[in-house]
Write a structure and sequence with these properties.
The protein is built from 13 helices and two strands; from the N terminus they run H-H-H-H-H-H-H-E-H-H-E-H-H-H-H. It has two domains: 151 residues, Peroxidase, domain 1 (Orthogonal Bundle); 136 residues, Peroxidase, domain 2 (Orthogonal Bundle). The chain has 329 residues and is an all-alpha fold. The longest helix has 16 residues. Helix 3 packs across helix 5 and helix 10 crosses helix 12. It has a two-stranded antiparallel sheet. 43% of the residues lie in helices and 2% in strands.
């Protein structure tokens, strides 16, 4: 090998050695074992206190995590407040319905972490959100799981970056599958993560089209259970306040379980984007399988939310640890 070839080989080796790993490869369990060894217990304690104060903490935190990861990746950019001339993600119309208890949970957990001298300014808001999400799921009866850590907080947050990044209540299976695929998630991951709708609530305005004037031939969406449709009409009469809250899961709204899939089998998916998972023959077998087996569903959900937590992770110079979760820098 000549000198020129040797130099080229050495350069290539150096590039391999010093090039950043794929972002997900830098995440690992027990990332803070030496810098903040009691991190998970600190966060869990705050989440438990919030949970006792209000159940809304559960769906609010879970939804916050999803909305964060699908826009700019899991970097807590959704928590940034609009300042000066910058309108941040949280003030985009698709994020205005995010409940304050999710933000409050992360802020209080971060304060508790920073109150420990060894941990101060060592843990990102993005990682605290990921941990809090696991904890609320577990508190609501869902599976617990190991959380990969090592995310940094994002350096920007703009409302414009939200455009077209979040699924809408009228999406069909192709649209849902495509949007999740853009984030490295499979159709099975999408179906598993959709079960987050076994918790929380929606506003009448988000599904009114399904119960009033659905089409020229059907006033009510024909895929909607007729009895359930009448119940929704009673709760959301015409000209009522469109912000009235309706449970997403009409059977076990305060429990994270596989009832979501059983509801779909009965035509009780609140959004058409929920119900399509059963009406479309391509996704129906998965719905049926998870309606029958909570163990299968739990395993699939753990896999899916772990993969979600790897989306767009910031490391190295692409992120930092914010002094305050709602302020960039």
């Amino acid at each position: 090998m000549g000198k020129l070839e040797q130099a080229a080989a050495l350069l290539a080796a150096l590039i391999v050695c010093f090039a950043p790993f794929p972002t997900s490869a830098q995440l690992r369990q027990n990332f803070y074992a030496s810098t903040c060894p009691d991190l998970e217990n600190i966060v869990r304690g705050v989440v438990q206190t919030k949970f006792r104060q209000t159940f809304v903490t559960v769906p609010a935190t879970l939804r916050l995590f999803f909305h964060d990861c699908f826009v700019e990746g899991c970097d807590a950019s959704v928590m940034v407040a609009s300042r000066g001339g910058n309108t941040a993600e949280k003030d985009h119309p698709d994020n205005l319905s995010l409940a304050g208890d999710g933000f409050d949970t992360v802020v209080k957990a971060r304060a508790a972490v920073d109150a420990v001298p060894q941990c101060r300014n060592k843990v990102s808001c993005a990682d605290i959100l990921a941990l809090a999400t696991r904890d609320v799921i577990s508190l609501a009866g869902g599976p617990s799981y190991a959380v990969e850590l090592g995310r940094l907080d994002g350096l920007r947050s703009t409302a414009a970056s939200v455009n077209g990044k979040l699924p809408q209540p009228n999406f069909n299976l192709n649209q849902l599958t495509s949007m999740f695929a853009a984030n490295g998630l499979s159709q099975q991951d999408m179906i598993a993560l959709s079960a987050a709708h076994t918790l929380g609530f929606s506003h009448c305005s988000r599904f009114a089209n399904r119960i009033y004037g659905f089409s020229s031939s059907n006033k009510i969406d024909p895929t909607l259970n007729s009895t359930y449709a009448k119940q929704l009409q009673a709760s959301c009469p015409r000209n009522v306040d469109p912000l009235i809250a309706i449970d997403m899961d009409p059977t076990t709204p305060r429990t994270f379980d596989n009832a979501y899939y059983k509801n779909l089998q009965q035509g009780k998916g609140l959004f058409s984007s929920d119900q399509i998972l059963f009406t479309d023959a391509r996704s129906r077998p998965t719905v049926n399988a998870w309606a029958q087996s909570s163990d299968q569903f739990n395993r699939a959900f753990i896999s899916a939310i772990t993969k979600l937590g790897r989306v767009g992770v910031k490391t190295g110079s692409r992120g930092n640890i914010r002094a305050a979760c709602d302020v960039l820098g």
